[in-house]
Amino acid sequence: MDAQEPMRSTLKYLEKFTNYERKGVPKGAGTNSDEGFPLRRMELLMQRLGDPVSRLKVVHVAGTKGKGSVAALLGSSLRRAQLRVGTYTSPHFLTVRERITIDGVPISPEAFAALVAAHRSVLDEMRDLEGVTHFEVLTALAFKHFEEEGVDIAIMEAGLGGARDATNVIPPQSLLLAVITAIHEEHLEALGGSLEAIVHAKCGIIKEGRPVSFRA
């Protein structure tokens, strides 16, 4: 069998899930309102996968500019401290596997295909019953992979906004630090139409009683 076939089949399978990165994000999708993406859908998916985030220690990064750079710098610093670091970022440049890395190395084609295959029945059910999206699936699988691999810290970069982003299912006890990077007027329609609304959405990752850092 062609060695690339499992990965090709996996990518074809993932195309069944609505991909808002391709089709465009609906107006208000990232706001903490009735128009926003329903976080309950992601929470239910995580429950069906065994709630892996509850067994992780997480740094959550949101903002308009610099999220990827902050995640990379944090990961590098933590690795120098001899910690095993999982990092989830988006979008990717060449392969979706770039989004899920451990110690700077993307998940292998074999491991990625196996990760999807192992949870396909749950993903199918959640797609049919709840309409889970492509980004939600990748986010949930990243949490699951990091748990299974026993990383010391997972760095999770929010995709859109923060309050209603799929990454925002981290319970307070798992959140080591929330980081808010520079905020600009981007994705205005999806995030409420004003800079104030964007700030409100990004700051939705902050949890009561947990540390927060602002990075310009």
UniProtKB/TrEMBL annotation:
Keywords: ATP-binding, Ligase, Nucleotide-binding
Domain Mur ligase central: 61-208
GO terms assigned for molecular function: ATP binding; tetrahydrofolylpolyglutamate synthase activity
PROSITE patterns attached to this UniProt entry: FOLYLPOLYGLU_SYNT_2
UniProt-listed Pfam families: Mur_ligase_M (PF08245)
InterPro entries hit by this protein: Folylpolyglutamate_synth (IPR001645), Folylpolyglutamate_synth_CS (IPR018109), Mur-like_cat_sf (IPR036565), Mur_ligase_cen (IPR013221)
Family of this protein: Belongs to the folylpolyglutamate synthase family.
NCBIfam families, per the entry: folC (TIGR01499)
Protein name: Mur ligase family protein
Species, as recorded: Klebsormidium nitens
